[in-house]
Amino acid sequence: METKSDLPEKGAILQRDKQTYAIAPHIPGGIILDFGLLRKIAAVAEKFGAKAIKLTSAQRVTIVGLEEDKIDQAWAELGMAKGAAVGLCVRSVKICPATHFCRLAQQDAVTIGLELDKRYHGMELPSKFKMAVAGCMNSCSEPAVKDIGLIGMPKGYRVLIGGCASGVPRLADVLAQDVPAADVLPLVDEIIKYYQANAKKYERMGRMIDRLGLEKVKQDILG
Ligand code: SF4
Questions:
Q1: pLDDT single digits (tens) 171-203
Q2: How far is the CA of 196 from the centre of ligand 1 (A)?
Q3: For the chain, first and last CA: distance in Å?
Q4: Residue 43 belongs to what domain range?
């Protein structure tokens, strides 16, 4: 029997049965304003014989259990971009509802999160890379276990770097406090450039910080 593997070019991930695949359409921030989108995903899953629809921790709606010969047709009918679910790249930007919906929010995490998604989702980097933005310190989008995490505080954003939930988990370090919203995107850009220039292949942000030393990394990024 032919040995199958992930099909990154088709955005398809081999499942446990070693025969069928999951595909994950890109839904920035997991926010769906067009309810027809959910109906379309359900219709495609049904039409092509998927086994399940799974809501993922990366705020995706994944169609699970497609036969290989149905993948291209499923993507064509979805008409959606592929989520960066595999590979050495920015996999996801997780966003909480923040000031758009949540009464506890201190900052507009959705606007910043969607901009981060637009700029970085799928960008190739030395290792897989995750981001999260939360509107307050309740941290519902889990910024403390992301490579870059932003937390909305009364006077601006707390910027975290080096968090990771997989393998040996690592809590993020605080890079900066009370960063005004207008300064957050330029700072994230500096962090990404620094990581690109200094990380080894497969080295997550947190391991790079452990190797180089937090104070040096802070000094280098913040000047
Ligand atoms: S992190 Fe704060 S603002 Fe965001 S959903 Fe949770 S409680 Fe609401």
A1: 999 999 999 999 999 999 999 999 999 999 999
A2: 30
A3: 57
A4: 8-78
